[in-house]
């Protein structure tokens, strides 16, 4: 129940209570947070978690789970900016594990209990602190029980007035459980029906949250439309269509203090839209770092991704011969499905134009964004995506499939290149067009880079939209303007 929402495009940590009285997502730029107001800057030691002098009894599965409660603050990253409070629930039996959802043996069998404790515990903590929020903002299936608890279990408590917003970051993950575990949630069979938790005679937590939340949001306007279609709805398109205009897309932002080519400490030379000279130095340094021939004239392509079919890695594999035949260089950074790691590693060892780094390397990610000319994102679906925004900020034109947030943030032949069909040929042909433009009309290519770099992807606009969303949700819940 922090007053900052969990980071966008990520599930909340297993032992962190979901947001209550939430501001924009926790990775919002400090300036955006400051513009919305705050309660001042805490002492530095407030950033160190400390245990509160209370034990929290949380109803769970017919009994009570007793948790310790810790408090800390999020470092706002800028002097004078508000530092949101975060509360954490400590329960060693359910949370003291190496994985968040599972381990090498698979998903944990008690995940329903673990996330029911998270959701119910957040509301119990409100009672313990006598903190009565106007709004509770929850994320994905992991905290989707909160809107149900507010409607079913808290309707006679001071929490009854709290509106709820459920943000869907990825509809592909819904929280499916056997109906025999329903007692774990503390809810009765009267909530196990097609307009709540029941789906195909099983429990679907996200479905229950969608039907019970005051409003539902997603991380881009296009994704809000896609998830209401049969193709993009992951079986919940009808549920989302039932909510109609209650489903609202708000585009994620990026931290433009970290992703800033003028101040980035990870790259070889600074640059900006006013002076692109440093980008040429970054390209040469990246070619040397990755063992590629140092050629300023060759188009350098980058890809930073999970190596997974959702990210279109299979169609990239099918297009590689075509792409590399264009006399380009390609650098891939990421990890994921074993077949992709093995394939790219073999090609990297045999080709003088292709390099792969299996794993994650934050500094290298910045250097790829800074040094590449083009950036590939051939995703099957992409709720929002961040790298296409990082790329534009660094003058690296994205080549994307026109889905979700990619379609919302890239203007075709203006700040990047888009294709519709999910195929290797569509990707290869779009890369070929971008490479042709790079060579045949460098002045226009440069103008595209400058337009991309001047776009504003910071959090300020999203913060304003979240504030409007919260006001709408509160008005909807209470029947009066807020």
Automatic annotation (TrEMBL):
It holds the Pfam family Glycos_transf_1. Residues 1-35 have a biased composition (Low complexity). GO terms for molecular function: alpha-1,4-glucan glucosyltransferase (ADP-glucose donor) activity; alpha-1,4-glucan glucosyltransferase (UDP-glucose donor) activity. Keywords: Glycogen biosynthesis, Glycosyltransferase, Transferase. Residues 1-48 are annotated as: Disordered. This is Glycogen synthase. Residues 296-437 form the Glycosyl transferase family domain. Its EC number is 2.4.1.21. It catalyses: [(1->4)-alpha-D-glucosyl](n) + ADP-alpha-D-glucose = [(1->4)-alpha-D-glucosyl](n+1) + ADP + H(+). CDD domains: GT5_Glycogen_synthase_DULL1-like. One of its GO terms (cellular component) is cytosol. Pathway: Glycan biosynthesis; glycogen biosynthesis. It comes from the Bacteria. It is an enzyme of class 2 (transferase). The gene is glgA. Synthesizes alpha-1,4-glucan chains using ADP-glucose. HAMAP family: Glycogen_synth. One of its GO terms (biological process) is glycogen biosynthetic process. Belongs to the glycosyltransferase 1 family. Bacterial/plant glycogen synthase subfamily. It comes from Sorangium cellulosum (strain So ce56). Residues 85-241 form the Starch synthase catalytic domain. InterPro entries: Glyco_trans_1, GS/SS, Starch_synth_cat_dom.
């Amino acid at each position: 129940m922090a007053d900052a929402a969990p980071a966008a495009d990520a599930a909340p940590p297993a032992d962190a209570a979901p947001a209550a009285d939430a501001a924009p997502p926790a990775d919002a730029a400090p300036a955006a947070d400051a513009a919305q107001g705050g309660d001042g800057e805490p002492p530095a030691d407030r950033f160190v978690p400390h245990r509160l002098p209370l034990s929290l009894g949380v109803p769970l599965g017919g009994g009570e789970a007793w948790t310790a409660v810790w408090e800390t603050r999020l470092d706002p990253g800028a002097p004078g900016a508000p530092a949101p409070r975060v509360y954490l629930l400590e329960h060693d039996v359910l949370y003291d594990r190496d994985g968040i959802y599972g381990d090498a043996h698979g998903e944990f069998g008690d995940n329903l209990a673990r996330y029911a404790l998270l959701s119910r515990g957040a509301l119990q903590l409100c009672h313990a602190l006598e903190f009565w929020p106007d709004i509770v903002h929850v994320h994905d299936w992991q905290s989707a029980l909160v809107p149900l608890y507010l409607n079913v279990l808290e309707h006679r408590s001071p929490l009854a007035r709290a509106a709820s917003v459920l943000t869907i970051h990825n509809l592909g993950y819904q929280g499916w459980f056997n109906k025999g575990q329903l007692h774990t949630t503390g809810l009765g069979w009267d909530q196990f029906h097609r307009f709540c938790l029941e789906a195909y005679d099983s429990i679907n937590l996200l479905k229950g949250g969608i039907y019970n939340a005051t409003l539902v949001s997603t991380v881009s306007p296009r994704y809000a439309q896609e998830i209401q279609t049969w193709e993009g709805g992951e079986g919940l398109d009808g549920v989302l269509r039932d909510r109609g205009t209650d489903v609202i897309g708000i585009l994620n932002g990026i931290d433009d203090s970290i992703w800033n080519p003028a101040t980035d400490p990870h790259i070889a030379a600074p640059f900006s839209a006013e002076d692109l000279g440093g980008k040429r130095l970054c390209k040469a340094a990246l070619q040397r770092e990755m063992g590629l021939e140092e050629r300023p004239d060759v188009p350098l392509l980058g890809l930073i991704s999970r190596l997974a079919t959702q990210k279109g890695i299979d169609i990239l594999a099918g297009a590689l011969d075509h792409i590399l035949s264009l006399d380009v260089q390609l650098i891939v950074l990421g990890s994921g499905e074993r077949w992709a790691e093995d394939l790219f590693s073999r090609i990297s060892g045999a080709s003088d134009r292709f390099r792969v780094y299996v794993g994650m390397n934050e500094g290298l990610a910045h250097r790829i964004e800074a040094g590449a000319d083009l950036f590939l994102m051939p995703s099957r679906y992409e709720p929002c995506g961040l790298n296409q925004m990082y790329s534009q900020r660094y003058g690296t034109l994205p080549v994307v499939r026109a889905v979700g947030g990619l379609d919302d943030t890239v203007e075709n032949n203006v700040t990047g290149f888009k294709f519709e069909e999910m195929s290797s040929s569509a990707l290869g042909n779009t890369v070929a067009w971008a490479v042709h433009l790079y060579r045949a009309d460098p002045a226009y290519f440069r103008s595209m880079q400058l337009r991309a770099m001047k776009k504003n992807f910071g959090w300020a606009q999203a913060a304003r939209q979240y504030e409007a969303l919260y006001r709408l949700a509160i008005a909807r819940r209470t029947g009066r303007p807020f």
